Amino acid sequence: MKYGRLAALAAGLFGTTAFAQSSVTLYGVLDTGIEYVSHANAVGDHVVRMPGITGELPSRWGARGAEDLGGGLKAVFIVESGFNLKGGDSGQGGRLFGRQALVGLEGRWGALTFGRQYSMSYWALADADILGPDIYGIGALDAFLPNARSDSTVAYKGKFYGFTVGATWSFGRDSTGTGNSPGQGTCAGQVPGDVNQCREWSAMLKYDGTYFGVATAYDEQRGGTNAAANFFDGITPFAISGTGDKDARLQANGYLNVAGVKVGGGWVGRHVESSGPGGDVRSSLFYLGAQYYVTPTLAIDGEAYRVIVEQQDARATMASLRATYFLSKRTAVYCNVAHVWNSARARYSVSAGGGGTTPAAGVGQLGAIAGVRHTF
Predict the structure, then answer these.
(1) Which of 48, 222, 341, 348 has its CA 20 to 30 A from that of 163?
(2) pTM for the complete prediction?
(3) 1 pLDDT above the threshold of 80
(4) How many domains does the chain have?
(5) Is residue 6 domain-resident?
(6) What's the rounded Cα separation, in Å, for the pair 131 and 304?
(7) C-alpha distances out from residue 54 to 58, 66, 144, 335, Å
């Protein structure tokens, strides 16, 4: 009888027509292409490949649902799995639902959710960052930003008269090591007697109007066993193993829609405090982009980025230009070209697709990709 009840519950969860007041939607993105990257290693060789991670958008599939509980209250859930078309393998460290796995309640007061989910850094960036999680986007200079999610998280987000407020609290941000911030190490959770180990919290205030919007967010990760800080500039990551250590990002951004052109830009300031050999390191990342629809089916957009890591004496400038042609509401083809100029100590790779494309220090890198994207 017990197993029968569990089977009935599972069938009700995923059945799209089981109850009139419930809905479940299956969705996904398939996106990849053929990429060329110059100076893909220290001796200057180039590579032609199918990238492992992303094109315009990371590939994923998922299910989201809601049940009307009456009085304006709904139960909601999302399970979302990232995967790589190149090999069919799971992303986010091999997790089944590494992108999102959450359940909660939603009402006029907002939504309160529990599980693995995005931090407020992600939501604050979503409108001002023109290229988003593109292979030649902001993730090439700070891989955390398009991957800002955490395990064991309680989140609240609500919108009131154009203002959006939100906050998250994670009891242990990352048990796999690649799902939260690539290359940043595992930090599974608290230990008895220490409530700070691997803790993460974030907060956001955002305003969206008819023609413009602004946002600010703060995100703080505490140190713990195996945790590390990576500035993605080719310099070896360093440990932030003490629970007094922290890795914090503060951002401010905005966007403007005028005469059919969307312009967005902002700043992300990062401060890592370590009691170990890494010491204190600060960085600033600036970005400015624009998007214009030449026709209803052809979009041209681009973005420029500048990152400065003070204590590591690493600097880079990157420019990215993209054209997207929509064959239908669900299918598009695109071409994207970008170049990164590295300072004498920096080894940033233009490709957020990763996978052995790190140039020698001080060497620039050109990337180009032609791809196709389909949503369902």
Answers:
(1) 222
(2) 0.91
(3) no
(4) 1
(5) no
(6) 10
(7) 5, 29, 15, 13
